[in-house]
Amino acid sequence: MTCNFIRIQKILKNKIIISILFSIFSSCFLFGCVPSIVKNNQNNQTDSIILPTMRNDQLKSPTFNLKRFPDQVALLLPLSGTYKREGESILNGFLSAHYSLNKDNQGIKNINVYDTQKYNNIEEAYDLAVQEGAKFIVGPLLQESVKELSGKIAFSTPVLSLNSIDNDNPIIGMYQFSLSSIDEVISTSNKVISDQNKYGVIIMPNNELGYQLKEIYTNTFQSMGGLIIDHQAYDPENQDFSEELKELLSISNSEKRYRRLSANLNEYLAYNPRRRQDIDFIFLLATDTTNAKLLKSQLNYHLSGDKPIPVYSTSNIFSFNTDLNDLDGIIFTDAPWVIDQQTWLADLPSILRKYWPGDAIQSRQNAMGYDAYFLVSELNTIKSNNFQELNGATGQLYMTNNGKIRRRLAWAKLVNGTLQIHEENNVIEQ
Questions:
Q1: Is the CATH number 2.40.50.100 carried by domain 182-334?
Q2: Is the pLDDT of residue 328 over 70?
Q3: Residues 416-426: pLDDT tens digits?
Q4: 159 to 26, 75, 109, 149, 173: CA distances (angstroms)
Q5: Does domain 15-48+65-179+345-407 have CATH number 3.40.50.970?
């Protein structure tokens, strides 16, 4: 390959060989800065360690210390079927990073893309990629494929999967990178403590994931000196959560006391329900933006006339091109790509809209593909140094001792339907 272009070939059977004349894009893919490696002070490396939440100003204007990329990288992605959209968004993010870096012929020389839906199993796609010269493999995306690959392959070529599985011990030759809700829950614990809130309650969906995240958050938060006083599950298929919220806020108990007293006296009594006064915050776990709007509006009703209480949440509450006024006041965590639009990622959404107009604006999968590109070069660096981090589009990335890439995230508050960057009062040093 020459210095200024990448070749494109047609789809040949089950493989797409990525090729583009870079000279067409060179004037457009000049981002200025790309991710950098930063050093964290941590001296212990375990999967359960809690890191401080990053300040948003840490995301601004990083510099990139280039490490050597493999000559040939294979992407194993679903580019047809149910998860076609997700696979394409990751691919577009990966290529955006490639075009931004490869203007000086610094990046990967050859990128081969394999549609994992075209193969009998993921091992077959892996074997073909290796046979055709891949020195590093990114993917697969689907969790069942990651699990299958982790159990059947002796890795002659290293893998950065784009999902994670439950494993305590490292899988030799496999690293796991995912947009895990666990990262957001851990970040929320740090944020709440940094805001000097100590006592809280959790409202979460009545499903397996809801209870899993509730347990993780409770254990994490209480290990940091906080206390979860109560929790309440709700049916995400419903639209009226009044009873669940009244139970969580102890309004139901207040109503019971009123009815009992009124019956004993046999007369009508003036009454204003009183919520519990022993909490500093509410952690709201919603399934999506619509679900979050319903919960927040009903919370507002039950908390009206009372002292405001902070409500924290995860990225599930937020989606672009949606009226967000009903979510005012919620403090939530998300990828820098989404939250901090004035930093080094500012041009990337417009580039994606221009060259991939069918893709979602600022898709989190775009950000994942973008980060995966630089992780190919930086894995050995962040692996060999205790909690060395990569400033990425999905967060500050670090590796645990079982080969999983974890993320520290950015924070925002919804004010009048718009995003407001929300900084920590202080950074917790563990």
A1: no
A2: yes
A3: 878 888 765 43
A4: 30, 10, 18, 10, 6
A5: no
